[in-house]
Automatic annotation (TrEMBL):
Its main location: membrane. GO terms for cellular component: membrane. The chain crosses the membrane at residues 189-209. It is found in: Membrane. This is Cora-domain-containing protein. The lineage of its organism: Eukaryota, Fungi, Dikarya, Ascomycota, Pezizomycotina. It comes from the Eukaryota. InterPro entries: CorA_TM1_TM2.
Length: 237
């Protein structure tokens, strides 16, 4: 379908003579077919970029890797196209024989059309490079936020475990102490003695754990107590 020799446009005698005397006429069709092929690849890359921008949160790493591949592929396509840009600028090769009017004007018109197509192709490459970089930045930010959330959750879990240990380790030591075979204790102590000693320890542990909340609650209750306190004689005056 993209065979450049199958789509040569010969509109009049000038095109026919240009085809016979000027290799740039054939080269221009080859370049035009190449640009068409590269634009089709860019269309496929654009669809892939759209899919990566809407990737599932569980596949962020795969989405970033795909965007890096697309970005490098665009750079490779631009590298291949650079050779064609030299051919367009020089209208083939400087070593080729020059043509005269009116073939020269037809050749310049063909060069102008190719240059417009090639500039549009380079603009699309730059646009998709920018889109890949922005999409990678967004996905990287989402991945970092997700890691921060996991780290915060783990920190809360460690805090909860520390609170449990702060409460139950003293209790286990107390139970172990009363369960030892101590000569001074002629008989095992009553369970009520253990409970009587354990409850204050639990209250103290809970008070130390929630001391900030208790202090905040006390500060909030202070204005209420001041309102209920009767005014003194000096305050009335």
């Amino acid at each position: 379908m993209l065979n450049p020799l199958r789509h040569l446009e010969i509109r009049d005698e000038l095109d026919h003579e240009l085809l016979l005397r000027e290799p740039f006429f054939v080269l221009a069709n080859i370049i035009r077919s190449a640009v068409t092929t590269w634009n089709m690849m860019l269309n496929a890359i654009e669809e892939d970029i759209n899919a990566c921008e809407q990737v599932n949160i569980d596949r962020l790493q795969a989405g970033m890797e795909q965007l890096r591949f697309n970005n490098s592929l665009i750079d490779r396509i631009k590298g291949f196209a650079t050779v064609s840009s030299y051919a367009i600028h020089n209208m083939g090769s400087r070593s080729w024989p020059a043509v005269t009017e009116p073939l020269l004007q037809r050749k310049l018109d063909l060069q102008a059309v190719l240059q417009i197509d090639f500039d549009e192709f380079k603009r699309r490459c730059a646009l998709f490079n920018t889109r890949c970089e922005k999409a990678m930045t967004i996905l990287l930010t989402i991945a970092q936020l997700r890691q921060s959330q996991h780290a915060t959750i783990q920190a809360y879990q460690v805090t909860d475990l520390s609170r449990l240990a702060f409460i139950f380790i003293p209790q286990s030591l107390l139970v172990s102490a009363f369960s030892m075979n101590i000569a001074e204790l002629h008989r095992p102590p009553s369970v009520w003695i253990v409970i009587t000693m354990a409850v204050p320890m639990i209250i103290v542990a809970l008070g130390l754990i929630h001391r900030r909340k208790i202090r905040l609650w006390a500060l909030q209750r202070r204005p209420l107590r001041n309102r209920r306190r009767p005014a003194t004689e000096e305050e009335k005056i």
